[in-house]
Specification:
Two copies of one chain form a homodimer. Chain A is α+β, with helices and mostly antiparallel strands and about 350 residues long. Chain A has ten helices and 20 strands. Chain A has a six-stranded mixed sheet with strand order 4-3-2-1-5-6. In chain A, strands 8-9-12-20 form a four-stranded mixed sheet, covered by helices on one side. In chain A, strands 7-10-11 form a three-stranded antiparallel sheet. The radius of gyration of chain A is 23 Å and the shape is elongated. The interface between A and B is medium-sized, with 13 and 13 residues.
Chain lengths: ~350, ~350
């Protein structure tokens, strides 16, 4: 049986569940590599994936003998089968944060389980820790993102629109071994850079614009995420101190991301340093990255999470001054026993483009 | 109060509900024009939209006095407020097909409602009937799609890849008044045309290829959907009889789509005619179109729906021969008292491209 399913079986045993129904396709992908529409059942005796005719061939092609998963076509599964999948199971887990109330009621009726148990992001919480294979994929996604950024530094010209630059990012990814963007890239120039979630517009890049470029790609399902703030032609004097402040904190966060550190405490320290300089921390400092571009754990000023090795996180402090400009600098970072390592390695000193 | 919310109030009264919580953003858009993240409460006394700081300004800009909707920032809503929204309400509806089991439990705790009632697609079922304003938007989306198809007939050249053609579709929409694609367009040439849900590839279009082009755009939120099968340079003799058979049935379906007709019976008739000629109907004949590209009602050989005026449906018979080729012809159709009218009007006779 593959190691991830073996982990899940041990985990539910510990929680006194004799089976679990997994419906979230990202979790199914994580456990099995399957990309399809269907449901994964971990029963007492078996691992079962139920899908429909459109996917059977693909699914059988994806799975290996090692996975020990039986694939069923939904049209061949009788109500008798459903009732028997979890026979002799007292407690069966389900993903209460993913399935709808209507689907829950359907499961109740179909599987005739005594007790359906909420599982509170059981798999999402495990996805936080990346194994070697996952790390390699994320590292590759980060490498392609660095290459894309190098390309952009030569590509961007004054007079180009934000949209043109954003389109070039997606194109570069597709032509250089990635599956494509891991999210819609942000290219925000001049005043637009003050919006943390700006959408690329037809605005042309002008001399002296700071340009926030937030970009990432997918490689074999795994994401990268990086932001750089570059300058069109020249660096306005009023932006320099803010750039320096953001960069200083970004580097400090990287140093602080060691086993046992608190994401809440790190956030507080950045918030405090920004405040001492007269600015606010209006956006969370970062998030986990993996099969999803945003996943557990999250930096927060309220809830706490402690850093552990094998986590992959973004480190993305930013200062946003409405109607003026914004600066964000972001890396994807992996945590190891001996400290954190940037997986995105592009230059973070002042970069002037469009010369 | 706007007419759609008035309708909803009357409807829930009839069902003996004194309030309803609407969470599906498409339904919220339908009722209010709001595009944001939030929840709409129809209470005994008020219509309330709860959102967060990111959207307040936009939402207030979208709403008119006529809507009679009070907008709240979620951070200002106390647990006391939540408990009072539905005071003196015995039964309150919720969207069991949209909200997760976890969210349902949160609602239970938050709103302290006596009895939460499932509402069984109450709003989706009403969205089936388009009013004048909605029809105008769909007609405009169809018009732009016809223009795009005319453009493609000149644009497509032998040697171009499927992806190049697909990219041109999205570009045309954006440059000609639409918001963009209403779904990822299908451009499937040669053998690829045998897959009903083909994804555009790097395959180059070759002389004699049939090319299935399935495309649609969004205009002010509303979708269009059209398919044509065209030919690169020349029409292979083996495709002609199948093209003719599909087209004959497509025209027959349009004639049959009159008030009171049964979508199941229409499907059976096409299935039967295909069978008599040695082919199978492997894909549903069509679906409703509106704010979503696929919405109620659905053509089906199992469940029945009767045609009524103001419905907007696709009519898309197809024959798919694995490893050989496929032909699909599709229009978006509106049903009126006196019969059905094609909203997509592109030529359905043999079309040769890339000459």
């Amino acid at each position: 049986m593959n190691t991830k399913i073996k982990w899940l079986r041990d985990k539910i045993n510990l929680l006194n569940m004799q089976g679990i129904i997994i419906s979230n396709p990202v979790n199914i992908r994580y456990l099995t590599n399957i990309e399809a529409e269907g449901v994964l059942l971990i029963t007492r005796k078996e691992n079962i994936y139920i899908t429909d005719g459109r996917y059977i061939e693909d699914v059988n092609h994806t799975l290996t003998i090692d996975d020990e998963i039986s694939v069923y076509n939904v049209k061949d599964v009788s109500s008798y089968d459903y009732e028997n999948f979890f026979s002799f199971c007292e407690n069966v887990g389900f993903e209460e944060n993913y399935i709808t109330y209507a689907k829950y009621k359907q499961y109740m009726q179909q599987y005739k389980v005594n007790n359906f148990e909420e599982t509170d992001f059981i798999i999402e919480k495990q996805r936080v820790f990346k194994d070697e294979e996952e790390l390699q994929k994320i590292e590759k996604a980060c490498e392609i993102t660095d290459q894309c950024f190098s390309h952009l530094c030569k590509f961007i010209q004054i007079g180009m629109t934000e949209k043109q630059v954003a389109d070039e990012i997606g194109k570069f990814y597709q032509e250089n071994g990635a599956e494509g963007n891991s999210f819609d890239p942000i290219v925000a120039s001049g005043k637009n850079s003050s919006k943390p979630h700006a959408i690329p517009t037809e605005k042309k890049i002008e001399l002296g614009d700071p340009i926030v470029i937030d970009m990432g790609c997918k490689y074999q399902g795994y994401c990268s995420d990086m932001t750089r703030t570059v300058f069109a032609g020249t660096i306005p004097n009023e932006v320099r101190p803010i750039y320096d402040l953001v960069l200083k904190n970004q580097k400090q966060v990287q140093n602080d991301l060691v086993e046992g550190a608190s994401l809440k405490m790190i956030s507080k320290m950045v918030e405090n340093d920004f405040r001492l300089n007269g600015y606010n921390l209006i956006h969370a400092l970062g998030h986990g990255v993996g099969l999803e571009i945003h996943e557990l754990p999250y930096f927060s000023l309220k809830n706490d999470v402690f850093v552990k090795e094998k986590m992959v996180l973004t480190n993305e402090p930013g200062i946003y001054l409405p109607n003026q400009f914004g600066v964000r600098i972001e890396d994807t970072v992996k945590v190891t026993k001996s400290g954190s390592i940037n997986l995105t390695k592009s230059d973070k000193n002042y970069i002037i483009v469009g010369k």
